[in-house]
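Q: Hi! First time doing this. I have a protein sequence and I read that you can turn it into a structure. Is that right? Here it is:
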Amino acid sequence: MIRWKEIDYKKRNKLLFAGAGIVLVLAWFLAFQKTYQAYRENNRLNQLIGQDISNSTQYDFERKSKVLDSLSKVYQSDSAVWNDNFLSEASRAVNSPRIQVYFNNVIKNTMQTDTTAIRSKNLTIKGDYRAIVESVAELEKINTLGYLSTVTLKFDSKRASTNERKVIEGEVGFKVRFDGR
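A: Yes, that's right. Below is the predicted 3D structure, encoded as structure tokens:
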């Protein structure tokens, strides 16, 4: 093993240059590379100002439209199947004995457009915080329930005592799209 005190000044200077080179390369990868790429992208976009970019804009709109259509198909359902299976699908996810689930069968916030209808339903969940968070995570994994649109948690102050677990009430809302209405 070579000790630092045994190395003469010429070798120390060479190690200093090698160390400085390694530090510069590391600095390039950690800090300056993204800045340089952003600078080049900015220059490229500045050169495009004044040029006709209508073709690329049309392509971007078509690409985004395809992505949005594919996302909306995931949360698209038949209204009868959705209404019939909503509670059974939700009960599969919320199976903790520490959770109480209340379901009001009133369809809320129906939006109607020319070809589609968007409906939402809510579940009311009561329990402790950890059990509610786990249940919401399980509910979110089930695509047949629809898109998880809202989660509202409220502390139930009536039941709060030092001996009792703190009860939280949560409302979980789902939205789904129906075609051909």
